[in-house]
Specification:
Blueprint: H1 2-27, E1 34-38, H2 45-61, E2 65-69, H3 76-83, E3 91-96, H4 97-102, H5 114-117, E4 118-127, E5 129-133, H6 142-151, E6 157-160, H7 166-178, E7 183-186, H8 190-198, E8 204-208, H9 209-217, E9 222-226, E10 254-260, H10 265-280, H11 282-291, E11 293-295, H12 300-321
Parallel strand pairs: 1-2, 1-3, 6-7, 6-8
Antiparallel strand pairs: 3-10, 4-10, 4-11, 5-8, 5-9
């Protein structure tokens, strides 16, 4: 018992010695520019949301906050870079459901472990997925798309905004449930996928509404359905895929801000406080709603629990669909 008390006393002494230093570092935070890594090219939904958030955080923290696009391997490259970054609060990740949850079972040799390598800060947003087609394609409903695909097997190209993403799994699930054939074309993000949709290199795309909205408004893409549980306020006249007879095609990609593991708790708390205030603001809610997205916020622990749940949920979908990465 005497030895145990001595060990505990030493541990408490070490903690007391370290605590002022950690507190001091947090008190001075932020003292230099903060980088938010987006693991996809510019123009996609993650990038759009990150840039809005970075602008607001710059004001809230009275400090430069900028976005760095680090794309590759369906978001894995940028996500891994943050996992291996210094845990000092100056490199953050606006991660999405693909690289943090839905794609994990498809990539068993991932260079990072989501639950081990990240400190969640807060949920940030979720978005509506729209099923869009090139306007030259002679279809205006899901039923017409299915009929066209059955008459023209493997003549349609479907964009996969990111391998292992929710969009990827939904696309393959739709193909299976509808009993149709088409060629799946993978991209490094929504930005290039949507560009190829409007250029008619691909004819259909399950993609995030914020990335599609300006092109739908300009008549360069046609939304024939949304993959949400109910119709989107941004596209009230567009039915859900569920209404079209496919009740299992329902999902909402999400975004969460995370930091490298071992980032000091005081910094996580500070960032969470500012992110939550921004996401709760009426201005942010309206800005995202106009894009077809929703403003979300959470405690770090709620964010951690949600991500764990999503990893399990989408792992089951991978098993059910048999989707594999070629």
């Amino acid at each position: 018992m005497t030895r145990l008390r001595l060990v505990l006393a030493l541990l408490f002494g070490m903690a007391a010695a370290v605590a002022p230093h950690a507190s001091g570092a947090a008190d001075k935070y932020p003292g230099s520019p903060i980088k938010i890594v987006v693991p996809f090219p510019p123009g996609g939904t993650t990038d759009i949301v990150a840039r809005i958030l970075a602008q607001k955080l710059s004001v809230a923290l009275n400090n430069t906050v900028f976005v760095e696009n680090k794309s590759g391997a369906g978001g894995i490259v940028g996500t891994d870079a943050v996992a291996k970054a210094a845990p000092d609060g100056y490199t953050l990740l606006l991660g999405n459901s693909g690289a943090l949850a839905t794609g994990l079972k498809l990539f068993p040799q991932l260079p990072y472990n989501v639950e081990r390598d990240f400190e969640p800060i807060s949920m940030v947003s979720d978005v509506t997925i729209a099923l869009a087609v090139n306007p030259e394609l002679p279809v205006k409903t899901v039923g017409e798309l299915v009929a066209y695909a059955k008459k023209n097997p493997d003549k349609l190209n479907a964009a996969i905004p990111s391998v292992g993403s929710m969009h990827h799994l939904l696309t393959e699930k739709f193909k299976s449930l509808a009993g149709i054939k088409f060629v799946s074309v993978p991209y490094k993000g929504s930005g290039p996928a949507v560009q190829d949709l409007i250029a008619d290199h691909v004819q259909m795309d399950f993609d995030n509404l914020p990335a599609l909205s300006p092109f739908i408004a300009a008549g360069k893409a046609r939304a024939i359905a949304v993959a949400s549980a109910k119709r989107s306020e941004a596209l009230p006249d567009v039915p859900t895929v569920k209404e079209a007879g496919y009740p299992d095609i329902v999902a909402s990609p999400w975004f969460a801000m995370v930091a490298p593991a071992r980032t000091p708790a005081a910094i996580i708390t500070r960032l969470n406080s500012e992110v939550v205030k921004i996401m709760q603001s009426d201005e942010m809610k309206k800005k995202l709603n106009d894009l077809g997205a929703n403003s979300l916020w959470s405690t770090p622990e709620e964010c951690r629990t949600f991500i764990k749940h999503e990893i399990v949920r989408w792992g089951k979908v991978v098993d059910e669909t048999g989707v594999k990465v070629e």
